[in-house]
Amino acid sequence: MVIDMSDTSDRLLYAAINLIAEKGYKAVSTKEIAKEASVSEMTLFRHFGTKQGILEAAIDRFYYSTSMKELFEKNIVWDLEKDLFMISESYHKLMKKNQKVILIAFKEGNSIDGLYNQINKHPRQLKELLIEYFLEMKQQRKIKYEGNVEGLAMAYLYMLYGEFVSRNFVEGHQITSIDGDEFIFSAVQLFVNALKEKDNNFSAV
How far apart are CA 156 and CA 135, in angstroms? Predict the structure, then answer.
């Protein structure tokens, strides 16, 4: 998502994410955020009300749910391998771009009331998009899967998320030497080989 630094709201949100990720939620004041964004504190209050209000708005602005929803609406071609590659690569690019939001979640999740729910609505929405995708692929008889489709969506989401976290946030404990592209290739091939209909003779569940 493009940040418009000529827009007052965007400048405030960008400043809030950067400062909170660097110093912690409690250590950053609304006055400091406003100063970083080159506006008055009153302007911040007028736009977002409170410090928690600006953090919640920043998470919604800079996390990935809107981008992923647009991707599913516009870029899906109903080819399992192509779609999973596209979803996985886009997910990793967005997560990399929004590392500061994720860092705030790790650092502040237990100290800010409602923060986990605010952040978790993004993976929940992605899970629902994946469920809808896999159900439609079953309906089109392009995959064969007899289990709970929510479990399938969760397995794919956790695989992507787990690899991203271990690579970017677990210092000294990275469990693989392969790069992100190699991981995505392996993950996609695993799911394609497990789900791809090969004989067109199964009964849809």
Answer: 14
CATH fold, domain 63-195, is Tetracycline Repressor; domain 2 (1.10.357)
What's the rounded Cα separation, in Å, for the pair 143 and 73? 20
What is the largest distance, in Å, between two alpha-carbon atoms of the chain?
67
Q: How confident is the model over 178-195, as a mean pLDDT?
A: 89
Enclosing H/E stretch for 150 = helix 149-168
For 97, phi then psi, to 5°, come to -65, -30
Contact 71, 89 (CB under 8 A): no
Helix (H, G, I), strand (E, B) or coil at 196: strand
User: What stretch of H or E contains 120?
Assistant: helix 115-139
Delimit the CATH 1.10.10.60 region(s) of the chain: 8-60
The band of 175, judged by pLDDT with boundaries at 50, 70 and 90, is low
**Stretch(es) of the chain classified as CATH 1.10.357:** 63-195
Give the list of residues 6+ apart from residue 80 with CB closer than 8 angstroms, or none: 137, 142, 143, 191, 192, 195, 196
Band the pLDDT of 81: cuts 50, 70, 90: very high
Of the CATH numbers 3.20.20.140, 2.60.120.10, 1.10.10.60, 3.40.50.1980, which one belongs to the domain with range 8-60?
1.10.10.60
∠ CA 40-43-49, rounded to 5°: 125
Distance CA 105, CA 111 (A): 10
